[in-house]
């Protein structure tokens, strides 16, 4: 303890006494202010408030709006509000509660979990309010109760609208689902507008368009008696229903894409390049969103969450994969646009590429090399060495800024909640995240779409549609228009686009011609999917799951299935006037040309109305 | 002669015994009496507000017994020891706040709780005591009044936890912690010029705080200014609580007879809005008695602060007493419509254990200050 002089002590004593007196005065002043306020409320305006309190038999109750429905492009219903029935007991009207429940159990099955929920809810509600004993009664059960209802005074069947998704797995990742509002969501919403609402969009389109689908709450003034029971409704402001949403998604095409993928894990995204409409968006395997609406059991949820196939994971918008050789057309375009290369400049491919003065050999997928290749040949045969050399000449900064224009490394802005941005590496990114400087070798890896470069199938589809559009990038969207129920006119959602300038429109022609040859040339990596009815432009790709050592060679047959490469394919058709752009990913699927491309062909066939069969499977190599 | 001496001696002993008993128990009789009266009144009101559910009263009683036991236990600790622990407790509390931001669980949309497996713990509550203790410790290192450098350190010491709590977001608690630090500074003799200067600084940064506020916090201020704009949300609380208080009149509708409270027009009636139940059932007269009881407790706290012999005891006892007043004023101001709705319970009356435990531990410290004094220096 500090030693203090007597004088100091006395000074402190005076100071604190002084302060205590001032504080005391402030406290008294505060309490007096409060008393003045209370006199105002309790004496001056006592009459006024007394009347209000007497008349306060009128309660305001929220009336929840009906959630908007969701339709596909052809008017097929994808999300519906299904009336369900719950059996509810009003405690004060029932004499012997236990006996009533036991009697009910004789005509309608009541599980132990139902009883537990009833006990829990009973404590939270007033005696004159009803408490559910069973949810989701079948029509048979409703009928069985109706016949016996005279025996159960105080027990009623009550209807509630529950969201259902008729196509279940087929639309799960796109639509998302609604579920009970949780505490975190509670803090983010306008609680007044959600006063009567129990459900909120939890993911996908349901979440992205929550404001359009939800609608506006209504109120009703009800008169209650001295015990608080509702006697009659005095006045009501009806709620405004949520708007129905019409998608550009076509269920026929969605189903075709699902069938084309078959049992394989993967994703398909199809876009109409003319207006950015998403025609199909599939992620497999999937799950049943209907299980989530009323609350999924912990056991069932954990099984889905921990399944090795990750059914809950939206591979189309959230799956981030190295885009592999599918980026080669974009990089070739970048070479032309920046003047680093021309369509005729050639590179000699000996099967590997080394940076000057370095021993590391960056290998081409073809061991013997492609010989002398120009831009077109390098895209057709997917020559890695050409793109190592081109990327090296462009440098990472120009590569990064050119590829960003196509949306790589940023969210596309689609109206599905939870979309991820992928990763387009740059000097700045590496410094910030890895705290390392950029190595020239990494630029080469970016040139063939591997390494830390990541893109979602959705991003690939949008970028491919942009090539089909010769540079007009349109923000993809699932919802085409919205409409209030019963209204005559639809409100379209806006089309947002921007133009990418490459300096000379001939460059688009050159790259599109090369992509066409990928399918049409006998040396093309996707020659198998050539269609006799319409012309396809495409590019195959392989996305490496793990990196090989310098001396190792990749052998699919000897690699465990989950470590095998992912197969990729991007395409658009018809080449002359593109109406559909597709990106396909098949996880651990092997080769883009043999595994992913046929899926894209099937989807395009269905969309363009073509029936010509696909040639039988044959061994194709290539990247 | 001998008899006279003896009787004088006995008289002195009797007096020493009378005061000595409380002294030995380290309890302050007037304060204890005031607190017990207040809490008993609180139980009556909770019984009425909780729809005459005896279980609610039992739970509250258990909490009261626990809180009073803690108060008595803390009163046994000499302030000299509290002073030594101040800084460590403060550092621990701030670390816990960081932990809440990183691993805290969500309740009512804010991240306030730390789940320790067995119990859930709200570190911001600890800071309501740790901040005034730390500031009092800091200022007791030098003679009072504090110099500018020390004042600045004290302000920083206060603001770190205040900002962390505001980020959770818990505006009510962060305001209470802020006022706890500020009031200890005030008791320590912060000069009036400095007080005016700080006031000016606060006025200057108020717009910035407004920008950083969450939407729901801003909405509360809007509804405070115009309650009718949100008849289903916070505006409803304010309108209904004013009707409850106003309809109570001078003498109230009588215990258990409040219509506003019992017909469920009054939300949160056994917690934050319990003052409105008192206003409705006991009227202006009941409220004046309650406020007088509060005033008595505050007065006793300030007397203890003045009578303390060291600057730590003085500033801590004074600061904690004044925070108690801030509690009362913020809650009653909110319920009567003088202040915006901030989630602060009515001290020692509202149903709930957290704030009760903190407050009574604080009173335990104040009692300790009074009863551990050495013989006053002559």
SSE-based structural type of chain A = alpha+beta
What is the tally of helical segments of chain B? 14
Class by helix and strand content of chain B? mainly alpha
Number of strands of chain A: 23
Strand content of chain A: 15-25%
CATH C-level label of the largest domain in chain A: Alpha Beta
Largest sheet strand order of chain B: 1-2-3
Give the termini distance of chain B in whole angstroms.
31 Å
Question: What distance lies between the first and last C-alpha atoms of chain A, to the nearest angstrom?
Answer: 80 Å
**CATH T-level topology of the largest domain in chain A:** Beta-lactamase
Approximate strand percentage of chain B? under 5%
Keywords:
heterodimer; A: 623 residues; alpha+beta; Penicillin-binding protein 2a (Domain 2); Beta-lactamase; seven-stranded mixed beta sheet; five-stranded antiparallel beta sheet; B: 378 residues; mainly alpha; 2 domains; 72% helix; 3% strand
Annotate the secondary structure layout:
The complex is a heterodimer of chains A (623) and B (378).
Chain A: H1 6-44, H2 46-55, E1 58-63, E2 70-71, E3 77-90, H3 97-107, H4 112-124, E4 130-137, H5 139-148, E5 155-164, H6 172-175, E6 178-180, H7 183-186, E7 199-201, H8 204-208, H9 210-214, E8 218-224, E9 230-237, E10 244-247, H10 251-261, E11 266-272, E12 277-284, H11 290-293, H12 298-306, H13 328-337, E13 347-349, E14 352-353, E15 362-363, E16 371-373, H14 375-380, H15 384-404, H16 427-434, H17 440-447, H18 457-468, E17 472-474, E18 479-483, E19 491-492, E20 497-499, H19 506-520, E21 537-543, E22 566-573, E23 580-586, H20 592-608
Helix pairs in contact in A: 10-20, 13-15, 13-19, 15-17
Chain B: H1 2-25, H2 29-49, H3 54-75, H4 79-103, E1 105-107, E2 110-115, E3 120-121, H5 123-139, H6 148-166, H7 171-187, H8 192-212, H9 215-225, H10 234-248, H11 259-262, H12 274-307, H13 311-335, H14 354-371
Antiparallel strand pairs in B: 1-2, 2-3
Helix pairs in contact in B: 2-3, 2-12, 3-14, 4-5, 4-6, 5-6, 5-7, 5-13, 5-14, 6-7, 7-13, 10-12, 12-13, 12-14, 13-14
